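hey can u run this one w/ cytidine-5'-triphosphate bound, need the C-alpha cells asap thx
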Amino acid sequence: MRRLLNGKHIVLGVSGGIAAYKAIELARDLTLARALVDVMLTRSALEFLQPLPFETLTRRKVYSEVFVPWTDDLHGHISMAERADAMIVAPATANTIAKLVHGFADDMLTVSALACTAPLIVAPAMDHNMYLHPATQENLRILRERGVRIIGPERGPLASGAIGFGRLSPVERLVEAVRAACAVQGPLAGKRVVVSAGPTRESIDPIRFVSNRSSGKMGYQIADAFLDAGALVTLVSGPTALRPPAEATFVPVESAQEMAEAVAQETAAADVLVMAAAVADYRPAEIAEHKIKKSDADLALRMERTIDILASTNRPGLLKVGFAAETRDLLASAAGKLARKQLDLIVANEGPATMGSDESRAYLLTRDGEPEELPLMAKHDLAQLIVERVLRLLENGAKNPR
Ligand code: CTP
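ok here u go:
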C-alpha cells in the first residue's frame, strides 16, 4: 500500500449493475488504506449483493433506505454525506446517473449525493448501447460540467458478450481518484512540484548500458505524498518496475541527458524540484553504433561527465530538494552538496542500506539549523515528512522571499 487515506470519510454508493461485485473490492481497498467507508446500496444493487460482505470488510453499517429508525444520529439520513471527504458512485448505472443529474432523492445513495458538498466521483458501468445513448452521454456531460469527476468506463468484454465501452474502471484507478479527490483541499493545492526518480541508463552500445541500483521507490512515494497534499505533480522517472501514480504527469526518460532536458522543461513553471533520482555522474564518451563484439583483449570504456541536473537548475524562486546517498562521511558530504548545489533541503542516507529497501534511516539538513536525525521508517512515512518540511520551507520563504 503506497498511500493512505488515514481517517478520511468516504461514501461509496453502489448501484445495481453486474459490476457491483467489484465494489466489494473497492470497499476493501479503501478500508485497507485506513479510510472510514460508508457504503450505500440501491434497491437494484441489493438484487445483486447482500450488505454482509461490505459490513464485514468496512466494519461499518451499510445503508440503503432513507426511512429507517435513526438511533445513533439526529441528522440520520444526511450525516454520512455531511462528514464525507469524498463520495464515489461505483458502479454508476445509467439510471443512477440520470437520478444524479435531476436531483432525485429516493434512496440513501441519491440523498447523500444531494447533501454532500465534498468532491463526487462517478464511475459508470453498463451495457455499451446504454452508455452511448444520447441520454446517458448528455447526463454525463451535465455532471462533468458541475465538477463531478467521471472515471471510465473502459472498453472490453461486457456481460452481454459484446465488446465495447461499459466496463467499470479498475479498482486501483478508482482508489487513486478517491485519493486525488481527498487532496483537493490539501495544503499544497495549486503548487507545481517536479519529482525525479529511479536510475538513469547510459548506453554503451545498442544492447548494453551502465546503470545503478536505484529502485525508484523513494521518488514514487514522494510523488504520491505531494499528490496527497494537493500538489500538481510531474514525475520524471528513469526505468523502474513501479506503476506511476495515475494522477501525476508522467515523463519517462532513460539517460541523464534526457532527464536533464525533461527537468529543465518541467521546472520552467514549477515551485518545487525534488531530485530523488540516482543520476549517473559519468556516461560512456562514445556510444558504439553496433554491438561491441568480444575479443581476447581487455575492454576499457572511457567515461565522460554528465550534467549535474540539480546544481544547474537555478530558476529564482524554485525550492530545491536533493538526496545524498553516501557510504561514508554522510553528514559532511551532505552539507557540502546542500551548499554547492544551492539546495533548501537535503535528505542524507546510507546508500547501500536504503537502495531497493522499503525503509530508510535518514538525516534532514537545511541551510539553517542542526541536522535532524530521523529514526528508521517506511519510505512512505519519510515521503510525508519531506512534504511537511517542504510546506514549512515554502511558508517561511513566502514570509522572507529570497
Ligand atoms: N544529481 C543530479 N545530477 C547528477 C548527479 C546527481 O541532479 N548528475 C542529484 C541527485 O539526484 C541528488 C543529488 O544530486 O539529489 C546528490 O546526488 P549524489 O549522487 O549523492 O551526489 P553527486 O553530486 O553525484 O556527488 P558524489 O557522487 O560525488 O557523491
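Residues 256, 275, 277, 279, 281, 306, 308-310, 322-325, 337 surround cytidine-5'-triphosphate (CB under 6 Å). anyway lmk if its weird
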